[in-house]
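Worked example 2:
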Amino acid sequence: MTIAVTAATGQLGTLVVDALLERTSPDQVVAIVRDAAKAEPLAAKGVAVRVASYDDPTALKDALAGVDQVLLISGNEFGQRAVQHRNVIDAAIANNVSRLVYTSAPKAETSTLPVTPEHLATEQYLATAGIDHVLLRNNWYHENYGQTLDTARQTGSVLASAGEGLVASAARADYAEAAAVVLTTDGPVKPVHELAGDVAWTQDELAAALTEVLGTPITVSQVTAEQQTAILVEAGLDEGTAGFVAGIDAATAKGDLALTNGDLRALLGRPTTPLVETLRALA
């Protein structure tokens, strides 16, 4: 069984390939990449490297030739992702790929996260595309708080407008391993996995973890979304990015990242990685 991983040189894709190599032989893994030079470490492991961008339907069709399964890792070009994802899905269908696995967003049908609309559009396209598919709705990554750690180190504070909203984040490697488990499971698998960490934490608990890691007291500065946006703009972010950050906190306050259901733990066969462990590695 040949398994293709798109965006295979990205932060998640690299980890997925490594997890696959623990479960299958290199000649069964295909790395779809935009830059062959960046993929040299993968090629050195015996993985087949094929070059195709999400914007090139012809190259994608060629790259997925002879593939049994494909992991479509969602792109990062906001505003273009729905079309790009459709290009990959269409190429998979053209090659009679038996199953497509897609990394989506948590609670995609109802979430107000700014990243969700393109994920939902992709899910809706898959629902009508006529290809067997599995949705991996990944909750937030611990690694998303690397910048928060750096800012806390400098200011002694976490700026937030999330209130008491919970975040059930997990390590990127946890999600990568789960994807590899799904891709290497023989027979039927659940069509939708809501994946999240074992523990849902508040901003105060994030500050406590940062305090432990940095060895200095870190507090939380809770502000309104408008105040948060203004503070971030004053600190140098453009208004779009600042609004995006505030939008994530608004969705967090509504509970869009709070789900903990044990699904990720079940796929891994072990507890998910604690937040403090990833923060310590980032520090």
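The mean pLDDT is 96. The longest strand covers residues 99-104.
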